[in-house]
Write a structure and sequence with these properties.
The chain is α/β, with parallel strands linked by helices. It has a single domain, classed as Decaprenyl diphosphate synthase-like (Undecaprenyl pyrophosphate synthetase, 3-Layer(aba) Sandwich). Helix content is 42%, strand content 15%. The protein has a 6-stranded parallel sheet, sandwiched between helices. Strand 3, helix 4 and strand 4 form a beta-alpha-beta unit. Helix 1 crosses helix 2, helix 2 packs parallel to helix 3 and helix 5 packs antiparallel against helix 6. The longest helix has 25 residues. The chain is globular, with a radius of gyration of 18 Å. The two termini are 19 Å apart. Bound molecules: farnesyl diphosphate (FPP). Farnesyl diphosphate (FPP) binds next to helix 1, helix 2 and helix 3.
Length: 233
């Protein structure tokens, strides 16, 4: 499948954001520890990145660890941080090869001292990637990001630049229908697709079905539909 196969001849969303929810429930259903759900979730993330490249998505922002996730048991937090470290260590070479730029958004001052140099190296080594910008949100709170941007930016443009590009499509898995302090400003005009499947089951087919739903929707940004632009926009 490629971009031209989406409904109305529409391209894939430029910026796809994902709330990767349901790792714990996926594991519970199978009588496995929650950490196994996260491990499978990391595999699903790799599949999502590959699919995003194939569909021509330019920016993919995924919610890996919210600032509220610090409230979870210490063992689960440690397991998530370890997965994050492993992800950085194992994926950077592939990202460079595939033209994927990797960035981490969110606070860094509460992350372990082992993690920060890995993040900085990964960002530096992949900085020239132009095919896909993969942004991992770690210790991320959108409210906090907005407050920080507001404290430094002097214009609307600076404010938007401090936060990042507008989201075109937000996918949340596992059936919950809320945004949970994720990209609140950037999602002002995002289309939202909520999937019942748990995140570890996410694959290219599910991404394609969400993009199909997105492509079939009419986006008006508060204006009126432009009949001439429907086929091309
Ligand atoms: C939500 O599921 C998911 C998370 C809190 C963490 C997301 C992390 C991953 C997908 C692991 C890999 C990430 C990287 C960057 C390697 P949940 O635990 O809230 O599930 P539940 O609602 O079913 O309990």
């Amino acid at each position: 499948m490629n971009v031209s196969t989406f409904p109305n001849n529409r391209p894939a969303p430029g910026h796809l954001a994902i709330i990767m929810d349901g790792n714990g429930r996926w594991a519970n259903q199978r009588g496995l520890p929650r950490t196994e759900g996260h491990r499978q979730g990391a595999k699903a993330l790799r599949r999502a990145v590959e699919a995003a490249c194939r569909f021509g998505i330019r920016t993919l922002t995924v919610y890996a660890f919210s600032s509220d996730n610090w409230k979870r048991p210490k063992t689960e937090v440690q397991a998530l941080m370890l997965l994050f470290r492993k992800f950085l260590m194992s994926e950077v070479a592939g990202c460079v090869r595939e033209g994927i730029r990797l960035s981490v958004i969110g606070r860094r001052d509460r992350l372990s001292e082992h993690l920060i140099p890995l993040i900085e190296d990964a960002e530096r080594e992949t900085a020239r990637g132009e095919r896909l910008h993969l942004r991992l949100a770690v210790d991320y709170s959108s409210r906090e990001a907005i407050v920080r941007a507001a404290a430094t930016a002097r214009t609307h443009e600076e404010f938007s630049a401090a936060l990042g590009p507008d989201v075109d499509l937000l996918i949340r898995t596992a059936g919950e229908q809320r945004i949970s302090d994720y990209l609140l400003w950037e999602c002002a005009y995002a289309e939202m697709v909520f999937l019942p499947e748990y995140w570890p089951d996410f694959d290219e087919k599910l991404m394609a079905s969400a993009i199909n739903t997105f492509a079939a929707r009419e986006r008006r940004f508060g204006g009126l539909v432009q009949p001439m632009s429907r086929a091309s926009s």
